[in-house]
UniProtKB/TrEMBL annotation:
EC number: 5.1.1.-
Keyword Magnesium: yes
CDD domains xrefs: L-Ala-DL-Glu_epimerase
Signal sequence, start to end: none
InterPro entries reported for this sequence: DgoD-like, Dipeptide_epimerase, Enolase-like_C_sf, Enolase-like_N, Enolase_C-like, Mandelate_racemase_C, Mandelate_racemase_N_dom
Keywords: Isomerase, Magnesium, Metal-binding
Species this chain originates from: Formosa undariae
Protein name in UniProt: Dipeptide epimerase
Ranges for domain Mandelate racemase/muconate lactonizing enzyme C-terminal: 135-226
Keyword Zinc-finger: no
Protein family according to the UniProt entry: Belongs to the mandelate racemase/muconate lactonizing enzyme family.
Length: 342
């Protein structure tokens, strides 16, 4: 039988994090440990306030789950269905259970998860995210991120041109741009995208509000840069119609309820010729360590959520010169997780 333990945790950011929708200096997290026989599996629910989950809601959801009849091999399809039936929403809490189950599977079968998914081991060039700020601070943050080959720049405020200019004062490297639903007029959005095309931008993430369907249909037909859905693409069902509004999707474990559905989303996206981005919230090396195992399926990777915090309780895959190097530890890839000292 599986036993479940949870710990609330507050993940502290190195810098104030600002996007078009607000700012914060920390992220509430619930850490999970599942035990099955002599094996331990680790998971995590990261819950930025924007998405509506809290430490209290995650703990309540997880503590009321019944795994009394669960045995190995774990039936992830039925377990995922059970989690969805148990309560609506709670996608981060569901992701925590999902990744802990995958961690157990990898340890029981003695394989790292990329092998479990029959994927190759690849080194991943992750972007480093720079939040909205003054030009001076942005220049400092860009200089600090010199080792990364790609930067992800947050736009969607009233000083977009100033932000891009500040970045270009420091570097000419390629940029991912994330407007976080901040552009609300389709013609103005297109003007900005056409201007950004000349600034060595790779793609634009979530340029308009997620429910502006007709505007996004208009924009995706005209944009000279790929448009990637983030807030507008949450789960598997969203992928089915994503090509009407986007050229690609951003898959995050905290939205998708974990690896089981994220893998299905990536497979469906490929079948529909959609580009794939792997993204994250502010997370520990646990959730980041889980997501990187799907890296071979991605066109772009933005898995830096553990690099911008001061109190990551775990150690996972190494990042050198902006490249994530997967280790071959069984399961997620955490190295000597010391649960009792967290």
């Amino acid at each position: 039988m599986i036993s479940v333990e949870v710990k609330p945790y507050l993940l502290l950011k190195k810098h104030v994090f600002r996007i078009a929708g607000g700012s914060r200096t920390s992220t509430p997290v619930v850490l999970v440990r599942l035990k099955y026989n002599e094996f331990e599996g680790y998971g995590e629910a990261s819950m930025p306030p924007l998405y509506g989950e809290t430490i209290a809601s995650a703990q309540t959801f997880i503590k009321t789950l019944d795994f009394s009849k669960t045995s190995y091999p774990f039936d992830l399809e039925n377990i995922s269905a059970y989690l969805d039936r148990h309560a609506k929403g709670n996608t981060a809490a569901k992701a925590a259970i999902d990744m802990a189950l995958h961690d157990l599977i990898g340890k029981i079968e003695q394989v790292p998860l990329y092998q479990y998914f029959n994927l190759p081991k690849v080194a991943l060039k992750t972007s480093k995210t720079i939040g909205i700020d003054s030009a001076k601070i942005i220049e400092e943050r860009v200089a600090e991120a010199d080792e990364f080959q790609f930067l992800k720049i947050k736009l969607g405020s009233d000083n977009d041109a100033e932000i891009i200019q500040a970045v270009r004062n420091v570097t000419d490297k390629p940029l991912f741009v994330d407007a976080n639903q901040g552009w609300t007029n389709k013609e103005e959005a297109l003007d900005k995208i056409e201007w950004l095309k000349e600034q060595n931008i790779v793609f634009i993430e979530q340029p308009m509000p997620k429910k502006a369907f007709s505007d996004m249909e208009w924009l995706v037909a005209r944009s000279p840069l790929p448009l990637i859905g983030d807030e507008g693409i949450q789960r598997l069902d969203d992928v089915k119609t994503a090509s009407h509004f986007y050229h690609g999707i951003n898959i995050k474990l905290m939205k998708s309820t974990g690896l089981h559905e994220a893998y299905k989303m990536a497979k469906m996206a490929k079948s529909l010729n959609l580009k794939i981005m792997l993204g994250c919230m502010s997370e520990t090396s646990c959730a980041i360590g889980a997501a990187v195992h799907l890296g071979a399926m991605a066109d772009w990777v933005d898995l830096d959520g553990n690099l911008g915090v001061t109190n990551d309780p775990y150690q996972g895959h190494d990042v050198k010169n902006g490249i994530i190097h997967l280790n071959d530890t069984n399961g997620i890839g955490l190295i000597n997780p010391n649960w009792d000292k967290i």
